[in-house]
Amino acid sequence: MVFFQNCFSKPHLKVALLFVLMLLSNLQVFGQQIQQHNGDYTINENINGYALFDYYKSGQETVKHGNFRFERMVTDSVENTVDGIVLTGIYQNNRKDGPWRYSYKEFSPVGKPGTTDNEIIFRTNGHDYTISANFSSGKINGDFSIKQRTVANSSTKDTLLYLSSNYAVGTMIGVVTGKDE
């Protein structure tokens, strides 16, 4: 009993806490090390683009864990259009978690380009399609919405379609509300 009382006296308590902190910091070295992918990436086996995301390795498997962003921009010089896909969200142990947003844009430049610093900027006309959803442990959970908007001179002109619903652990609950023009 005296041994335990001496171990937890103030000088010994400081040494014990320091020892525990050292052990915990060393455990992180042997844990999963988060890495970052920043480059070419393919989704659905045929959509090539650029991705930035955090991950760790579990054996041979790449486990996405953290912020995720995928972009694909395609310029059609014959049609004078730019089509783009942007997908953003968060992964927790390879499962979607929290807010996710999928956006598809079809734009055509309007007028002459402008410049700011080292960028060339075009005003655009076109369409913007957006799907927003919340996830929990890989299942859709919470708000879900779909929007289709027209863009004129780089500003949203009109919402052609808006649908929203709510989900609970992958199952739609309530009613679908929306606007269709």
Largest beta-sheet characterization:
10 strands, antiparallel
Number of helices: 2
The residue-averaged pLDDT reads 84
Give the SSE string. Answer: HHEEEEEEEEEE
Helix content: 10-25%
Low-confidence stretches: 1-30
Which radius of gyration do the C-alpha atoms yield?
25 Å
How many beta-strand elements? Answer: 10
Based on secondary structure, the structural category is mainly beta
Distance between the termini: 80 Å
The portion of residues forming beta strands comes to over 45%
Shape: flat
- The quaternary structure here is single chain
Structure explained in plain terms:
This protein has 181 residues and is mostly beta strands. It has helices spanning 2-7, 10-30, and strands at 35-43, 47-58, 61-76, 81-92, 95-96, 98-116, 119-136, 139-152, 155-168, 171-180.
What's the gist of this structure?
This protein has 181 residues and is mainly beta. The chain is built from two helices and ten strands; from the N terminus they run ααββββββββββ.
List the defining traits of the structure above.
single chain, mainly beta, 2 helices, 10 strands, 15% helix, 70% strand, disordered N terminus
Layout of helices and strands:
Layout lengths: L1 H6 L2 H21 L4 E9 L3 E12 L2 E16 L4 E12 L2 E2 L1 E19 L2 E18 L2 E14 L2 E14 L2 E10 L1
Antiparallel strand pairs: 1-2, 2-3, 3-4, 4-5, 4-6, 6-7, 7-8, 8-9, 9-10
